[in-house]
Please model this.
Amino acid sequence: MKISIVVPVYNEAKSLPELFNEIRAILQKEKIDYEIIAINDGSRDNSWDVLKKLGSDDKRIKALNFKWNNGQTAAMSAGIRASTGDVVIPIDSDLENDPADIPKLLKKMEEGFTVVSGWRKERWSGSAFSRKIPSVMANWLISKITGVKLHDYGCTLKAYDRDIISEVELYGEMHRFIPAYAKWKGGRVAEIPVNYRPRKYGESNYGISRTFRVLLDLVLIKFLVKYMNRPMHFFGGLGFFSVILGLLSGTLALVLKYSYGISFISTPMPVLTTFFIIVGIQMAAMGILAEMIMRTYYESQSKTPYSIKEKINFD
Model:
């Protein structure tokens, strides 16, 4: 079995040599066949120069250089697409994830799981209550909406079976939802505690704005998984409900006029009737349009949301 270690990189030049040495040491010790794919996501430091040096010393280290910063999800998507291993394992480049946990993920996969997710159980140990609560609430909300209970959706260190990861198209901040996607597609998901190490160099690139983007992507991925192949069911359902409201409003207007002598112009019912019926027709039309877009999506050529400038050790 061959594994692919995918490493998104953004301004982590100082940590890269240490990280790659740790990865190689643990995998060679365990006699695991591997490749390391690093994606330089438009770093402003000399991360690419470091990767070129590492790649020249070890042909199992491959690297992609984005023309500009595209975000962690795009970087991970590029690495997954370029990988050739039977198992794909993303890992952060800031040394917070411990490569020594990689064999533990692989061992858990031997039990038949298609995704094994890391849980940084001690991450918030000693941290302020105000920092821990938002993380706990976010993971609870994601678990509730997706139906896949995990303690730590944000942990990059995960192991994915090639068959399941190859079916995933990643956009926005959707990389963290792959376990839920795998479960929806019939996969088996497990979670194991992994080591968490404080950042050694630089500062975190994460901010509160990412939390809002994650929540928006959560709504989107839930919609895509449930209605991607049948958008007419979603829009048609809303349209049908709107038309029903319109008919009820119209019926009420007739009852008020002929049973109680209340003129049409004395109530808002006729306006509501017209409004709901028009909205219903528009929603049905949107459903038809979405069906056409969906067909075009499946029939069009595959495209990526990123642009690669250079490559290292790719034949």
User: Anything to note?
Assistant: The longest strand covers residues 2-9.
